[in-house]
Design goal:
This protein has one helix at 7-29. The chain is mainly α and 54 residues long.
Length: 54
């Protein structure tokens, strides 16, 4: 069964992850986010929900 032979696929998988972790990940992480999260006033609604069928 050829799909169980890990010879070509293991090398492709490991080289892909190596490229991702060494080259692409620092480039992606170096970008600054455009929308920084801010602290919002989280107002808790204490009014109960009025269901139309009750």
């Amino acid at each position: 069964m050829p799909q169980l032979n890990p010879d070509p696929w293991l090398m492709i998988l490991s080289s892909t992850w190596l490229i991702y972790t060494i080259i692409l990940q620092p480039k992606i992480l170096s970008h600054l986010p455009t929308n920084n999260p801010t602290n919002k006033n989280n107002k808790i609604n204490t009014n109960p929900w009025i269901w139309p069928w009750t």
